[in-house]
Hints:
By secondary structure, this protein is an alpha+beta fold. The chain has helices at 2-33, 37-49, 53-81; strands at residues 91-97, 101-109, 118-127, 132-142. The protein has two domains: 2-51, no CATH class; 56-142, 2-Layer Sandwich (Pantoate--beta-alanine Ligase, Chain: A,domain 2). It has three helices and four strands. A four-stranded antiparallel sheet has the order 1-2-3-4.
Amino acid sequence: MFWFLFYFAITYSLTLVVLGGCLYALWRWVAQRKIRFILAGVLAVSLLALPLWPYAQVAWQTQQYRDELLPAFMKEAGHTISGEITTPPLIFRVLEYSPRRAVVYAVESCGETNSGQRWGWTMKLRTKGRGWEFSDYNAVWSDCGSAEGNTFPPYPEARSF
């Protein structure tokens, strides 16, 4: 979470610097043409909100298509990935959606024995007229570990040195 916030702060700061120059040029253009102040404010707010557009798009897609994709996700995740999934994921987002293809992101618990540990992954779904079907999946991050006992991101176990 720290690195996400750090990346977001740096990206947004650089975007604001670039947009600051654009806004200054826009302000001069508006002042020369005597366009209403409200219109200039709407343009400025639109430009400042531009970096948040992808987040708004994912939120909108999730709200629109969650009910359609969640049953297929639950069915395929239970059969294909772990066989343990019986409850809805903790976080479910629709990253991409088209009439034939969808990509969803989910965060789930590692199981009842690993309380508090979670893993995040993406699943690709395709439809061919019979409903949504599993296509592919990729793990994004995990607290659960692997068969070798490794976790991502890696960190040393207590007293391992």
